[in-house]
Specification:
heterodimer, A: about 325 residues, about 75% helix, B: about 300 residues, mainly alpha, two-stranded antiparallel ribbon
């Protein structure tokens, strides 16, 4: 555990160093990567470990985003407190939801969370406090003055999100190795066998769902920080799908690849943009290509690296060894 | 009273469309144990093809037939050339449990993108074959139009044809047998794989009809049928996901519930209503209104 802590601290220093050397756009993308890392981590916890599948994590992110924005805009609470609240309240919401949904398996849960993803953002138009289509502006405040004059807003975002992502991943990698992680894996492997070993399956599933929701809420709050407004259109159905894709591509049963998925999700719109500009900036291409890439990637990942790129590499190395030996 | 009758009628015609979508999900689920999230994508493709036919020929009915055929063909192709190879390829590892969900989701995205690429993402209308203006009752004009009546009529005909097919023909017997127990059906000489593909084709046709019937009262865009998918799924779960009767009952219950809530409470509560329905049913009666004996273990 101490070794892992040192590893994470070292990784943090490396990221800090990189953040100082690249231009503004890359720093901003780095912040997005950190946000997606947390969100994908929450899916890996849920799907990879406890075996439940959610197509509605975009909606949970929206929930967290609204909580954070309301905390800052209406109650003028400090930023860090708003993030804690976002994670906490979304976790509780997820727990309540999980009470109904976590008793379900596979497609039932998928469909229910899909309904959540379609339905929840439209609630924003129902209550005036949520600001309708325009949403709520979240004032992130200026970076602390002691960081210097030329310390930009984006770099501030990058620091906050990266720190959050590092802490989250450290916590996640610990809990997945703890007795809880083992219990969840047992649950995923064989529910009946887990039950026979004295695992309270229902309770464990709700717990996993609640923790995963809390992480999604935190990711949502951080996403809102980087785009500075929370509105229904920031959390479309395609966000939920993209998160699942990111998780499957990074290897849904392993936390190690989590950044790979996040990087891919951030790169895809950029690829789409550059392809579109090559073909004369057609609206058709810009609006459809990201979806096409995400979906194609999802299917290819399921077909060719169903248990993650890590396993595939391991497999290849094994094969080569067998040949040479 | 007037409001009540109009809500009832509108709810029925809305529920009829949900029922069809729900049936197409149930048909696939029964035979393959896959909730076909790509159904919305298949339906959007066939509905865009119908849009093209309406534009070229001006005939709604020709477009209707073409949409059904396209939907059926697409359903068969998806099963034969996508799902079957997938099941053959992905057989080990913990991914097996979630592979169907993830794969149909990916397919949904791809079909949507293809449609957006060909026809663009702007909203497109399909003109209704009969009037969309409501019947008048005395001095009041009901929101219930001849088109809504037509929807109910068409869905009723489709349901009768389907139930005849499933109850009275040998083909229907094979379909039911291979859904109930593929192994025993195979031993009794049913070509289970072909029959399964046929089931996907019928499901695709039902979804295509739902898609084209839902479009004239709103607009067509690459994701305009996602809502229908969600409601169809909710209806299927309300009905128990196993039974076609349940799917129809679920669709009607949901259609009526949603319409009454939006007429009496607020129009923007449509989604939350469907979601609450879904959660309440799952909590109170997880096996659906029309309960089958099998437990909810996918």
């Amino acid at each position: 555990m101490r070794k892992r802590l040192l590893l994470f601290i070292a990784l943090g220093w490396v990221l800090l160093f990189i953040g100082d050397r690249v231009d503004e756009l890359r720093v901003y993308q780095g912040a997005s990567i950190a946000v997606y890392t947390i969100a994908i981590g929450s899916i890996i916890l849920l799907t990879g470990y406890s075996g439940q599948i959610s197509l509605g994590h975009g909606a949970l992110m929206a929930f967290g985003g609204y909580v954070a924005a309301l905390c800052v805009a209406n109650a003028s609470l400090p930023l860090w407190f708003a993030f804690v609240m976002a994670a906490l309240l979304t976790g509780i919401f997820g727990g309540v939801l999980g009470f109904a949904a976590a008793r379900l398996s596979g497609p039932y849960l998928a469909g229910t969370t899909l309904a959540l993803a379609v339905g929840l953002p439209s609630l924003a138009n129902q209550f005036s406090i949520l600001g309708g289509e325009q949403g709520i502006y979240l004032d992130p405040g200026l970076p602390p003055a002691r960081l210097g004059e030329d310390f930009s807003q984006y770099k501030w975002f990058f620091w906050i999100t990266t720190l959050a992502a590092l802490i989250t991943m450290f916590w996640l990698s610990n809990i997945l190795r703890s007795k809880y992680g083992r219990t969840w894996r047992a649950l995923r492997g064989n529910e009946v066998a887990a039950q026979l070993c004295g695992v309270h399956t229902g309770r464990q599933k709700v717990l996993a769902f609640a923790l995963s929701s809390g992480l999604a809420g935190l990711a949502g709050a951080l996403l809102v920080l980087t785009i500075s407004t929370v509105s229904p259109s920031a959390f479309p159905l395609s966000l939920s799908f993209a998160l699942v894709t990111g998780a499957v591509v990074s290897g849904i049963y392993d936390l190690k690849g989590v950044m790979l998925g996040a990087v891919i999700l951030v790169i895809i719109p950029e690829i789409a943009d550059s392809v579109a500009s090559r073909f004369g900036d057609s609206l058709k291409i810009i609006s459809t290509l990201p979806g096409l890439l995400v979906s194609a990637l999802l299917i290819l990942a399921v077909l060719f690296t169903p248990n993650g790129p890590g396993e595939k590499l391991h497999h290849l190395r094994h094969k080569r060894k067998a040949h040479s030996g | 009273m007037y409001k009540f009758i109009s809500s009832l009628l509108i709810g029925l015609s809305l529920g009829a469309i949900y029922s069809l979508m729900s049936i197409s999900l149930v048909l696939v689920w029964r035979s393959t144990r896959v909730v076909n999230f790509a159904q919305a994508g298949q339906a959007i493709v066939s509905t865009y093809i119908a849009y093209e036919v309406v534009n070229r020929t001006g005939s709604f009915w020709l477009a209707f037939i073409v949409a059904i055929l396209a939907g059926a063909l697409l359903g068969a192709i998806v099963d034969r050339y996508f799902m079957r190879p997938l099941f053959k390829r992905v057989t080990t590892g913990p991914i097996v449990a979630i592979a169907p969900v993830v794969a149909t989701l990916g397919l949904l995205g791809i079909l949507r993108a293809i449609v957006g690429f060909i026809w663009g993402v702007e909203l497109k209308p399909i003109a209704a074959p009969v009037s969309l203006d409501g019947y008048s009752l005395g001095s009041e004009v009901l929101p219930f139009a001849p088109y809504n009546a037509l929807v109910i009529l068409i869905v009723a005909i489709v349901l009768i044809v389907l139930s005849l097919l499933f109850q009275k023909t040998n083909l229907g017997l094979s379909l039911r047998a291979s859904a109930f127990s593929p192994e025993i059906a195979r031993l009794s000489g049913v070509r289970v794989n072909e029959i399964r593909t046929l089931g996907w084709a019928i499901a695709g046709a039902a979804g295509a009809i739902a898609g084209i019937l839902a479009t004239p009262t709103s607009y067509l865009s690459p994701n305009s049928l996602d809502i229908l998918l969600v409601f169809g799924f909710a209806a299927a779960v309300i009905g128990g996901l196993e039974s076609m009767v349940g799917a129809v009952v679920g669709g009607l219950v949901l259609g009526l519930g949603v319409t009454f809530v939006s007429n009496y409470v607020s129009t923007s509560l449509i989604f939350p209503t469907a979601f609450v329905f879904l959660i309440v049913i799952l909590l109170v009666r997880p096996s659906g209104i029309v309960a089958g004996k099998r437990s909810r273990r996918a």
